[in-house]
Amino acid sequence: MKAGKYRWLAVDTWFRPVSARPLAGLRVGLSLILLIHLIWISGDILSLHGSRGIIPWELTDLLRDPWVPGLPTLAKALLPLGVSEQAAIVLLLSAYAGSLLSLALGFHARLSAFVAWGLHVSLVTSGFASYYGADQLAKTFLFYLVLFPAGRAWTFVSRAAPREATIPVGCLRVMQIHLSVIYLAAGLDKATGIQWWNGEAIWQVVSQPIFSTFDLRWLASSPWIAMLAGWGTLIVEIGYVFLVWPRRTRKIWCVATIGLHLGIGLLMGLVFFSGVMILLTGCLFLIPEQLRERRVEPGPTVALGRRPMLTALLVVIGLPLLGRKARAGRGAFDDYSALVRRVMARDQIPGLAVGVVERGNLVFARAFGYRDVDEHLPVTADTLFPLGSCSKAFTATAIALLADEGAIVLDKPVRTYLPAFSFADPVASATVTTRDILTHQSGLPRHDLFWYRAPFSRDELVNRLRFLEPCGPPGRQWRYNSAMFVVAGRIVEEVSGQSWESFVQDRILLPLNMRRTLLSLDAMEADADHASGYVLRDGSLQKMPTLKPSSAIAPAGGVQASMRDLARWLTFHATRTPALLGEGMWRELHRPQADMPASDEPEVQHPHYALAWIHESYRGRPLVVHNGSIDGFTVHLGFLPETGQGLIVLMNRDLAPAALMAIAYSAYDRLLGLEPLDWEARLDEVPSPRQDVRNVALDFPVKTLAGRYEHPAYGLVTVRAEGDELAMEFRTLHLTLVYQGNRRFLSREPVTDGAPQITVWFSKKKPGEPLKLFVPLNFEEGDPVEVFRRVGPTLPR
Known about the structure:
Layout: H1 2-5, H2 7-15, E1 17-19, H3 21-49, H4 60-63, H5 71-76, H6 85-105, H7 109-125, H8 136-147, E2 166-168, H9 169-191, H10 195-198, H11 200-206, H12 223-243, H13 247-268, H14 271-290, H15 306-329, H16 336-347, E3 351-358, E4 361-372, E5 377-378, E6 385-386, H17 392-404, H18 426-431, H19 434-438, H20 448-451, H21 458-464, H22 483-496, H23 500-509, E7 517-518, H24 521-526, E8 534-537, E9 540-543, H25 554-557, E10 560-561, H26 563-575, H27 583-590, E11 594-595, E12 604-609, E13 614-618, E14 621-630, E15 633-640, E16 645-651, H28 657-671, E17 707-711, E18 715-722, E19 725-730, E20 733-741, E21 744-747, E22 759-762, E23 772-775, E24 786-792
Antiparallel strand pairs: 1-2, 3-4, 3-16, 4-5, 6-10, 7-10, 8-9, 11-12, 12-13, 13-14, 14-15, 15-16, 17-18, 17-24, 18-19, 19-20, 20-21, 21-22, 22-23, 23-24
């Protein structure tokens, strides 16, 4: 009795014979799509993995799943047979193409499917070789063609064999269920974020050059279109599992799904992805419908009434709403875009990109404003921004990679790796360690104008450090000094035998697939999608002149990157994915190591410097952050160690710390699920107070002070007499000096944007001694004053 009751489950649902044409269609269609795809990308594969490929074979193990042999790994097995590297790659690609063709024609279909599946997996795992969509799904359904028979339909086998073959319906059911789960999971994942509800996800995709086949910027003026497209995508994907199975709604939902993917292929250029998805729906649901493959129900077949249909529709709409509510409970970003726009308008920020990273994905990615105001060029997720001091983390990571291999010990003196390294103090020269310089405890104050726009080479900059006055012994006090990261860059070069740029490219950028990260300003400016920098002066937004710093300072501030690439960078730091570093050294990068001054914001507590990161407590939760600023640009990167969530803020306006904090910490409030603070109310920035410049009658001829003055580290300063005032020129800086009495002069202008005015003074002329010019360049009380000595008269301009 019991066996009879459940007999339908075993026989009718899983073993009833049905036409094999659906799987035959999948066999032919998938093989041809992958074959065309292979022809399409074969040149790129050879460029990446060939004998002169971009990716050296030694790096293959870093770029792939360690359990799956990549294409170069398989090719290495052929080298002992006398096959060249290039020929081995070509041979493997030819075998892949041959197996796909054999599968399409139906020759030894399951064996061909197995060979094609294995080589496809190897190709995908090699990295950078597959276009989106024709990889993981194709791998899965190729494997099904290995497991299940695909029949003889549409083959060139002997005509004596029967043309119509059957398969157990269970083969079809398994793949139908799998495809339904894929759509449901994709839909629910989208539904848990606000971007698909307000249309931002649609706009962000179609506004990217890589995904846009048409100019769709007009969508920005009609946001309701993107919002409807987002809702439509969610309904189609989540509704798939409920409405593609019933016979009554199957054709309608298949047509809707195919329409969705036709739109993706047309508007985004994702032809292969769309082709695979359309093929799966067509073969697994439409062909069986055409063959009148009967939907099996337990017991007698019954038609769906109104109540089940209504239930299905309620589930389709209700599940996304529940997901949205769950997301909002932990800090939704519903109002965040509006907040960003208000801050941008108030602080005249021309362009900005902000991204939230979760589990390696940009779950919130929004670009605002213009990367170039004059040309009306919008910011995108791929726009390149200079990172300023956020570049230091790349150098610290490079040091950590070498330390992880045992090539560097952080607590050994710098002279272990740079024997000629020297400070002004012999004891400090012998004792300062690599950790000291990475945690800003070298004993030197900022000395920013020492390296700023300096014409020195990297070696010369390091050699001139011996002429800078310290503020204390190493390892005792945190004092920010960018030049010390140039020393760290030189350590990387000496230990690795590569330039800093080559090491960072090979060991960090390539393994992390950061293809929109550059290490040269010239390369950034040659890129079509890069931001121009702006600064606010006297209430007016001005475009900054192109900054051409020496490449010497690159280890401290010479990286340019896009928001999309920085998502990969933060994923590595927040979750150690991929595992470039051992866990111990990875944690060392972010561990609190040097006490820092207290923050002005009461919610930010216990700031400590790590290795090029700041570890602090924000509203009681640990936070790892760093800001960057360089002419015309301000950047914030950070992540929450407890959740692995990361934040990226990139803006092309200099000197906007309050705006940066409002945008960044408002995002952290939402990520932490806390009641957002009113950061906008704290936006009133207090400008550096301007000192009144009063003219004091000269009591000596001012022209006697004119001349060229030199400092052994900073270089030359030219002082010219212009009436009763002096003009001081240092590299690209020009200051007007007004006499204040007692041989002291006050600058009319700040030294640089955001810096204070300075007071300089001259020594009195003594027989046999040159005139001295005293310039306080570190701006903190108690810091040493730089002394420039007169070396000659002023030269003609």
